[in-house]
Design a protein that fits this description.
Layout lengths: L1 E8 L3 E8 L4 E8 L5 H21 L3 E9 L2 E3 L4 E4 L12 H6 L6 E5 H12 L8 E6 L3 E7 L2 E2 L31 H4 L1 H14 L9 H5 L6 H9 L3 H25 L3 E5 L7 H11 L5 H4 L3 E4 L6 H7 L1 H5 L11
Length: 331
């Protein structure tokens, strides 16, 4: 039986493991993401690959390759991070494949973190047997992955599917990308927390209640607080959540009009215990846009959970070996 090493690089943790062709994780290890320079991250990646390769050899498991998923705009052909993310320090213009290829003779594949989630879900999860799938990850930011005709859309050099930066309000708040009114400013955890902080700081009527602490400590507020306050009936929090649902719905309609998918899959920390959130988005989407395009589209949560990035990274050697699509065990 064949196996591959998968590595999912995030801003706070790096998950790595040995995965088989069905997507089952045989061995998994989790490390804190080094907060120094790229060299510290690359050294950790080298150590991970050495350790997992030795483990596979000891257990007589045949490794066919290494797959990596990381945030940022990725040159897939050359295995290079072109433009990284603020959550990972010193992560621009990093030739990961070239550097790691000096340490192993296994083929290495590197792609954007949401692309590999989309790949995992389309091959083995909620999108199985669907060739036209959009995946949105709602977390610190809003990441996107698009599979059209069975192939990931990367654009000319890896900058495709920056779906978090679709504009949903041209007069909206400034985004860290330099534009205004991006989906990310409304529907990410960071965006929701920021908008709630603005409401608290602007509300002079807040007195001795649960919100007054955050009036003086606004940086400690996060999207989890927003959902808790909404469920408790707080009007400002309810407005923030409704804004997020409306913005996400308009963004998804634009994506459906552009890509004509059969499914839109949602994942990320914003959606924890969020079936009701997805249902509200689904209900709104079908009232918007061109009916023939939006009504047939399934909008639902991903299936593979928090390990989707690791699994998606790991299955790349099977999907892309010899530059051709190959079948996975999708039973």
């Amino acid at each position: 039986m064949e196996y591959a090493i998968g590595i999912d690089i995030g801003g706070t943790k790096i998950s790595a493991g040995i995965v088989d062709q069905s997507g089952e994780i045989i061995t998994k290890k989790v490390f804190s993401t080094p907060q120094g320079t790229r060299d510290s991250i690359l050294l950790l990646l080298e150590n991970i690959i050495f350790t997992l390769t030795e483990s596979a050899h000891f257990e007589n498991k045949q490794l066919i390759g290494i797959g990596i998923g990381t945030a940022g705009q990725i040159d897939f052909v050359h295995g290079k991070v072109l433009s990284g993310t603020a959550n990972i320090k010193d992560w621009n213009d990093v030739a990961i494949k070239k550097i790691l290829s000096e340490k192993t003779n296994l083929p290495i594949y590197i792609d954007n973190d949401v692309n590999v989630i989309a790949l995992a879900e389309q091959q083995l999860g909620a999108g199985k047997n669907n060739d036209d799938v959009i995946c949105l990850a709602l977390g610190t930011g809003v990441g996107g992955g698009v599979i059209s005709g069975g192939k990931i859309i990367r654009g000319a050099w890896g900058g495709g599917a920056e779906l978090g930066h679709i504009v949903v309000d041209m007069n909206g708040p400034a985004c860290n990308c330099g534009f205004n009114g991006c989906l990310e400013t409304y529907a990410s955890g960071t965006g929701m927390a920021r908008r709630m902080r603005e409401k608290i700081l602007a509300d002079e009527s807040i007195g001795n209640n649960g919100l007054v602490y955050y009036k003086h400590h606004p940086d400690e507020l996060n999207s989890k607080h927003v959902f808790e306050w909404m469920q408790a009936g707080n009007e400002a929090a309810t407005e923030v959540v409704e804004e997020a649902i409306r913005a996400l719905s308009y963004g998804i309609v634009s994506m459906i009009h552009t890509f004509n998918p059969t499914m839109v899959l949602l994942t990320g920390g914003v959606l924890q215990d969020g079936d009701w959130f997805i249902e509200k988005v689904r209900s709104k989407v079908i009232t918007l846009g061109i009916p023939s395009l939006v009504k047939p589209v399934a909008i639902q949560a991903t299936q593979l959970g928090g390990d989707a990035g690791l699994i998606g990274a790991a299955i790349q050697p099977w999907v892309y070996q010899d530059n051709r699509n190959v079948s996975l065990d999708r039973s």
